Amino acid sequence: MDEDGSFFEKERDRLTAEISSGFEELLSSSNNLNRKLEEVLGMTREYETIAALWQSFHELMRGHHDEGEESVEAEPHGLPGTGGHVLTASKSGNGGGEQQNGP
Asked: Given phi > 0 = left and psi -120 to 50 = alpha, else beta, which region is 34?
């Protein structure tokens, strides 16, 4: 019976070591997976930052493009007192569209 007890203890120790080894391998694989997931999440954060930067650049350039189209339409009219006002010759022939006061 002593041999059975020793066989049982040897088998128990062997199975315990095998299970322990399996858990260590599982822990190592889980840690590896966790690191990979953190890398992926870090990369997506970097891409979000870059995408936000390009989005703001696109909106800025699109705004300049839209303003450029509006300013082309607005330039001929100009605003008096800003230096952008363009005097046009009037049909009355009084020289550049300015009114003449006096004799």
From this structure: alpha
